[in-house]
Design a protein that fits this description.
CATH superfamily of the largest domain: EAL domain
Distance between the termini: 141 Å
Number of domains: 3
Largest sheet: 8 strands, mixed, barrel
Strand order of the largest sheet: 1-2-4-5-6-7-8-9
Helix content: 40-55%
CATH class of the largest domain: Alpha Beta
Shape: elongated
CATH architecture of the largest domain: Alpha-Beta Barrel
Strand content: 15-25%
Number of strands: 19
Structural class: alpha/beta
CATH topology of the largest domain: TIM Barrel
Radius of gyration: 43 Å
Length: 537
């Protein structure tokens, strides 16, 4: 049986008879240590560990208890007593979690062990599916068909099976395939060296991947720090056990911990997060992604890519693995992109940027990200390429149309202007003096400066009074000094734009030179006056 975490000196005077008496007096009691769902912090299970608090010897180390039980043939009875105590106590707690009990390989050679164990479970009333039996690795299972059959009997009865301390015994794929295990427990010695040993990280990652590939739960034992828990979760291990969350505690404390943390709820089918499954998922994402995806290694050679990015580059084949960017990209045309990738690789932060590819005529937005492993070693550069050719084309067309409109306005005999809802001019064409003004305010000021002094105030007053009336078209005439010094008459007209509530939101106007029109009108008026003067009374 698992000895637990106590490391006291063995009391020299304890005998097998003392252990038998302790079992009879109820001095043996179960300590429960939670198995935690690392991401949520909820309880998945409790491992039940034996404790002997003797009135005569004090707290007896679990290793000594197991040794005495083996010597006196009491181990089977001790195991069944622990099952009865713990399972009976938790039967009325919140369900959803299971109890895990340790066994020794030698127990499975006893023909009475499995029937006695199953009878103890039935006696407690706890459903068999909530009982997990942990088996420690040992050579005995390699050749003992009877032991293997005993384990299969437990599985057939509905109990769950866990291979304990994986990695420290005689582990093999044959062993895992031979017996119907539901779970692998990674030995604490590997977990506690996660932060200091890259080799241990690789071993633990491999075991996690192995368990997931075989559709087994993987539990990390001996988790003592938050960093170890973080690394395990990052590697894909979802369940942990150790002092980081809780030491083994008595039943009342275990119940309080359960109520505090809650029971982990398995929603829906189990999600396959094995490395093989992740590989297939990534391949599908790469293949079907509507954007270009590429990963460059530390030497900026193509490590993986999808067909979209090959189309962007005008490459008709996919045999580019191992090819460097200097071979794929024109070093002159794409000098900026190459420099950006090199800078990202060297640790600089480079924002996404737009690049052109002359051979395909495409325009692309390229995002690049430096990628490090858990040891902060450089793996390469991740590249995402988005085709923005159509957007660039639309922008260029809009710019061309805007330039065409600007030229048309400047060559037109009419001057367009616009004002906001408050009557403030926020757009006006070029001034008549031919000067270059960069802002609307400068253009407007230039126009105001050319107004006849007698017309300036009357124009401003008329505009103010008109805007205070219900929305209707505006029209007025005024004089402006033309290049060369002559005064010319101008007519300004504007229509209001109103919203659904009838409120003016903008004004759109046009200014026209009406000097000739006014001159002709004056001539007509003069002729009419002459006719009336010459007409007989």
């Amino acid at each position: 049986m698992n000895a637990g975490a106590d490391h006291l000196e063995d009391p020299p005077a304890i005998r097998v008879s003392d252990l038998a008496d302790a079992m009879h007096r109820g001095e043996i009691w179960p300590a429960l240590q939670p198995l935690i769902h690392i991401e949520s912090g909820a309880v998945v299970a409790f491992e039940v560990l034996l404790r002997w608090t003797s009135q005569r010897f004090g707290a007896v180390p679990p290793q000594r208890v197991v040794q005495l039980a083996l010597e006196g043939g009491l181990l089977n009875a001790l195991t069944c007593q622990l099952i009865t105590q713990a399972a009976s106590a938790v039967r009325d707690w919140d369900d959803g979690f299971c109890l895990a009990f340790n066994t020794a390989p030698a127990q499975y050679l006893d023909a009475e062990f499995v029937p006695d164990l199953l009878e103890a479970v039935r006696f407690t009333g706890l459903p068999p599916c909530r009982v997990k039996i942990e088996v420690t690795e040992d050579d005995i299972f390699a050749d003992a068909s009877g032991a293997q059959e005993a384990v299969r009997t437990l599985k057939a009865a509905g109990l769950r099976l866990s291979l304990d301390d994986f990695g420290t015994g005689h582990s093999s794929l044959t062993r895992l395939q031979m017996l119907p295990f539901d779970e692998i427990k990674i030995d604490a010695s590997f977990v506690q060296a996660l932060e200091s040993s890259a080799g241990n990280r690789r071993i633990v990652s491999a075991v996690i991947g192995l368990g997931q590939s075989l559709d087994m739960n993987v539990v990390a034992e001996g988790v003592e720090t938050a960093e170890q828990a973080r690394l395990l979760l990052q590697m894909g291990c979802t369940i942990g056990q150790g002092y980081h969350w809780s030491p083994p505690v008595a039943l009342p404390q275990a119940l309080a911990l359960l109520r505090q943390r809650g029971v982990w709820s398995r929603r829906g089918e189990k999600i396959d997060t094995s490395p093989f499954q992740r590989l297939h998922q990534l391949e599908a994402m790469y293949r079907e992604a509507p954007v270009g995806l590429c990963f460059l290694d530390a030497s900026l050679r193509v490590a993986s890519t999808n067909r979209v990015i090959l189309q962007y580059l005008g490459i008709g084949h996919a045999n580019v693995l191992g090819v460097g960017i200097m071979e794929l990209l024109d070093p002159v045309e794409n000098a900026d992109l190459i420099a950006a990738l090199q800078a990202v690789r060297d640790g600089q932060i480079v924002p996404p940027a737009e690049y052109r590819h002359s051979r395909t005529g495409g325009a692309f937005l390229v995002s690049h990200q430096r990628v490090l492993d858990s040891e902060q070693m450089l793996l390469g550069v991740s590249v995402v390429v988005l085709d923005i050719s159509e957007r660039v084309k639309v922008v260029e067309e809009l710019r061309a149309n805007a330039e065409h409109y600007r030229q048309a306005i400047e060559l037109s005999p009419y001057l367009a202007w616009a004002a906001d809802s408050e009557g403030v001019v926020d757009f006006i064409g070029p001034s008549i003096d031919g000067a270059t003004h960069t802002t609307v305010a400068e253009r407007h000021a230039a126009w105001v400066a050319q107004l006849h002094p007698e017309d300036l105030h009357s124009l401003q007053r008329a505009w103010q009074e008109h805007r205070e009336k219900p929305p209707e078209p505006f029209q007025t005439e005024f004089r402006m000094r033309w290049p060369g010094g002559q005064w010319r008459w101008m007519r300004s007209r504007a229509n209001p734009m109103v919203n659904a509530q009838g409120q003016v939101t903008r004004w759109f106007g046009i200014i026209t030179d009406v000097s000739r029109e006014r001159a002709l009108g004056e001539q007509v008026q003069h002729l009419q006056d002459e006719v009336r003067r010459l007409r007989p009374p």
